[in-house]
Structures are given as C-alpha cells and as structure tokens.
Amino acid sequence: MTDTVADAIRTAAERLSATSDTARLDAELLMAHALGISRSRMLITMMREAPAPTFAELVERRAAREPIAHITGEQEFFGLPLRVTSDTLVPRGDSEVLVEAALELKPDAARVLDLGTGTGALLLAILSHCKAEGVATDRSSGALAVARDNAERLGLGARTRFVERDWTQEGWIDGLGQFDLVVSNPPYVENDAALEPDVRDYEPASALFAGPEGLDDYRVIIPELGKLLIPGGVTVLEIGATQADSVSVIARDSGFDVTLRHDLAGRPRALILR
Ligand code: GLN
User: Fold this and answer.
1) Residue 122: CA atoms inside 13 Å, Cβ hemisphere, count?
2) 31 lines ligand 1 (CB under 6 A)
3) Using one digit for the tens of pLDDT, what is the confidence trace for 46-72?
4) What is the ipTM, given to two decimal places?
5) What is the model's pTM?
6) pLDDT tens digits, residue range 202-217?
7) Which of 117, 101, 83 is nearest to 234 (CA)?
8) From the CB of 196, is ligand 1 less than 6 Å away?
9) I need a labelling partner for 120 at 20 to 30 A (CA). Which of 84, 144, 147, 227 fits?
C-alpha cells in the first residue's frame, strides 16, 4: 500500500526530529518540493499519494544535516522567495530586523550599499520596499551570480549593480561611490566556534568565520564607512549576540554614534551607526 502525503510527512517528521528542531516543517517543505507545488497547496491535498522515492531521497539529505534551503534551492526572506546555493549563506529570519531598521531610518534613501551581499537578501528586501538604487559587493563570484539572479527574478535588476570586491584587499572601496544607507551582514563567527553541522558542513566558511573573536571583518569595514556615506548617512550592521559591546567600541573609535537593535528572540542583532 502506498503512503498518503499526510502519512509520509508524519513518518519523515519523526525521522528528522532527532536532528532538527523544525522536523515537521522540514518534512512539509521537502514534500512540497518533491511534489513541485507550494506548501500551502500541498496542505490542502494531504490525502493524495506521496511521491515515495523522490521524497525519501530528500528526507535522507536532510537527515544528513543538509539545510532545507540547499535542498529546495530556495529560502523566503522578508516575504521574498530567494534562490540559495552552497555559494551563499542561507538568509536568516533574524536578519529581517536589519531590513526593518533600514526602512524605518531611511525610507527615502536614494542609494543603498550592501557589503557582502550573499544571496542579495538585505539589499533586495530593502529595494522591494523603496525606490532606491542599490550596489552590492561580495568577494565570491558564485554568490554574486545568485544575487544577480535573485534581483532579476524580483524585477529589481535595473536598480541594482553587483560588484566583486574583497575588503581584505587594498582599494576595495574605490569607485563604489557614496550612499545614504549601508547595510552589511559580514562574517562574524569566532574561528573555533562550535557550529551545528547544518551550518558548518554546508554553508560557506568565508561567509561565517572572522578570526579568533569574530571581529576581523568589522575592524576592516567600519573604518572605511565614513568614505562610503554621505553626510547624515546611516549604517545598519548585523552582529553576533555577544558582540554588541566589542563592535560598538570599534564603531565609536571611528567616530560613530551607536544604537542597538534586538531580533525577535530578544537577542542583540544589529547596530545602527550614525
Ligand atoms: N547568523 C549566522 C549563524 O548563526 C552567522 C552569520 C554571519 O557570520 N554573518 O551561523
């Protein structure tokens, strides 16, 4: 006898519960992907026959800790469907607080810069809610290809420019111009941090690790922000939950006033630099 979608999801959720905090949701997303339909569509057709072998294969990949977003090739961020590959960090819900802060502080921004754009998540979410033009950098050409593709799919291609830049290289800001708003979710994980296998084994190390204290990238980026901002410009930076004080010190040393924002879980998540 063949399983229904509902049965197959239940079994898979049990199988995944040992290794995932979101086992039921994971199983639903994988089933929708196997069926080639949206999750909401799937939820109203639960009694149909499960696509057994395809689904089982996807569940095995998830059981081996591959992120859902890598398996489905997609992650929703700030209501936008974004393409994701192993060249990019998977956009996190926690980062949506940066988009909210940016839109609140600079709703009429004319030019927005995203440093280390990855999938393009921060920039594209901001541009989809304002009229600004955007520039995004990344040192990974693979990530830039994903970000460009996302911009095109969202109809934002004409307002965005993606440039390959590595802020560890001299002259990395040359020709970028000046901006009302700079956003960035740079690497900030301590080199010896114990990460979940879902992150450690699948997401790009170059998007995560930032030296012994996780501060190397802030130390390079923050001193250059003055040159990238017009007078009155604002920077919104993602930080790790324990880094508010140390990154604030770096920012004040560069002459910025600093305010802190928390994410939905109440953890320190973003610094506003003015
Ligand atoms: N928030 C990511 C994590 O939890 C880290 C992102 C980053 O280094 N910018 O792994």
Assistant:
1) 31
2) no
3) 999 999 999 999 999 999 999 999 999
4) 0.92
5) 0.95
6) 999 999 999 999 999 9
7) 101
8) no
9) 227
